[in-house]
Amino acid sequence: MKTPSRRTLWTRRMAKNPRTRSSVRIPSSPTRSVKTGRSAGIPPSSVRSVKTGRSAEIPPSPAHRVAPLRSVLGIDPSLRGTGLALVERDAEGRFSLKIFEVIGLRSAKRDEADCLGAIFQKMGAVIERHRPETVALEQPIHVQNVRTAQSLGAVRGVVLMAARLRDIPVDEYPPLRVKQSISGYGRARKEQVARMVKALLHLAEDLPHDAADAAAVALCHFFSREKNLSWLA
Question: Comparing C-alpha atoms, which of 122, 214, 131 is closest to residue 167?
C-alpha cells in the first residue's frame, strides 16, 4: 500500500479542522470594475482610455513632444585656429549660416594658456549673444604626437566648460561620421565636404576650412537628430 505524502496528510488535517477550514482562503481571480475598467492587481499604467486609446499613466512618445531643432553652434577645435559656425534652420527646413569665425591665434608670442583663455572668452561671448540650442563638437582624431593630443584635449575641455556653464548641451561626433553625414562617404576629402556645406547652406562664397568643418559638424547634428526621432516615431 502506498504511503501518503506529507502534503496529502497536511491537507487532510487542515480539512478536518473547522477553525483552519474557515481561515484558509483561496485568492479569487482579479475582477474588473465597470466604472474604471481596472483589474484588482493591474497597475494603473496598463489601463487605457476609451476616448484616446492611450494609457492613462504613460506619457506620449518623445518623438511627438520634442520641438524641432532650430540652431546649432558647430565647433572645429584647434589651439591655433578653432572654427565656429552657427547654423540655423527655418520652419520650412532650409539651412542658413548665421555667423562663422576662425579664432586665429597664430602668433608665437601667445602661449597655450593664453590661447585657451581667448577661446573660452570667444565661446562664451558667442553663446551668450546668440543662445544656440546645442553645441556640436568634432571629436579630436587620433594623433601620434603627444603634445598635439594634449593641446586638442585642452581645447575640448575649454569648449565643454564654456557651454555647460551656460546650460547649453554638447554633442560630439567623430570626423568619419561627420563626413559620412555630409557627403555620404566617410573618407571624403576636406574639399568635398566644404563643397557640400556650401551647397547645403546656399552660400555664394567658400568658407575657410576651419569654419567649413565647424558648419559640417553642426549640419551633422541636425541630420543625426532627425534620424533618431524617426526611430522613435
Answer: 131
Give me the sign of the Cα torsion angle 138, 64, 130, 125.
negative
CB count, 10 Å around CB of 70? 14
CA nearest neighbour of 82 among 157, 165, 142, 171: 157
Helical pair 209-232 and 175-183, crossing angle rounded to 10 deg: 80
Q: Catalytic site residues?
A: 76, 138, 210
Beta bridge partners, 74, equal 85, 136
71-232 carries CATH number 3.30.420.10? yes
6-64 pLDDT, tens digit per residue, is: 767 767 776 666 555 444 454 444 545 445 555 445 444 444 544 555 555 545 444 44
Q: Nearest CA to 158 among 192, 183, 130, 121?
A: 121
b/e sequence 161-192, b meaning 16+ C-beta within 10 Å:
ebbeeeebebebbebebbbbbbbeeeebeeee
Burial of 149 from C-beta contacts in 10 A (0-12 / 13-18 / 19+): middle
First to last CA, the chain: 68
- Reading the block at residue 187, the C-alpha cell is 573618407
